[in-house]
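Backbone geometry tokens:
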Amino acid sequence: MNKLIIALPMTAILAACGSGGGSSGGSSNDIRVVGSSTVYPFTKAVAEDFMRANAGINVTVESTGTGAGMKLFCAGVGSKFPDIEDASRAMKKSEYDSCVAAGVKTVIEVPIGIDGLTIIEGLGGPDMNLTQQDIYKALAANPYGKGPNKAQTWKDVNPALPAIKIRVLGPPPTSGTRDSLVDLYLEKGCDSDPAMKALKKSNEDEHKQVCTKIREDGAFVEAGENDNLLVQKVAGDPGTLGILGFSYLEQNADKVRPVKIAGIVPSEATIANLSYPGARKLYIYVKGEHLQAKPKLRDFVATYAKNWSAGGSLEKKGLVPFGGADAAAATKQSVDLTALDPSTLK
């Protein structure tokens, strides 16, 4: 798990220790962020910028995965609980309900930019070009409901692909990247079959099982939340593929390269215009109950907004900025911090 902690001066530490628990969300000098490994490097950069400009403020950023972060974020209000959740997908309705049940009734969603869910291979790999259907047929536990997946090589999946053993390193179930893998690749590949589209209407539970359950026979390997380690493993094993966010690809272009999806290479341009099939929005969620006790939370979000625009520091780290109406809406929300409408959640 990645974790960034920059210490407070001793006087501030003592003050924080004496602040007690209660419902305040902890010391007003403390900001705690948990969540997505994809969003982690962006929030880490913002935290460093923020603390340089705000002496005595302590920001802790933990890479726990989106799902695990949501559980921590939604567990309650007060000093024991995080102020902000990084997320590589939108909050689920079930997670929002858990928040409300624990007293977190004001959840603020702030979209920060766009990422591309990227499949990578080592520089010595076969230069793959996959479709969403290829990915589904390779990784599904029970492709199209026709029995256990017996494909051993990519050629078994599609005769046009090389006879290389299927081995994909990817995110665990606690990761928002895993949810994006399901939404953007597996379900899309599954629903390319008309019978599966029909199944979704007639039996949603069975459709979910057939279209989203990943095989467990070694073809797919859960690689944890350390994306830098995943890059190292893929780079050292030609033929093995990895799944992670676009920023890690950009930062490691000397070690790995992208797998084309339907002939499209992930780039800032193809992600920004959403032509790349793996394009997805990234978010931070702010706990409204902590805003009054921690006025610096507003300033932290403002620092995020200052850095997420085109030409900003986060673009240089691989975050693809919003354009047009999306950019205007994100900037407005960073100021207004309007509470999330649960009717928009799935």
Residues 116-279 form a domain with the D-Maltodextrin-Binding Protein; domain 2 fold (CATH 3.40.190.10).
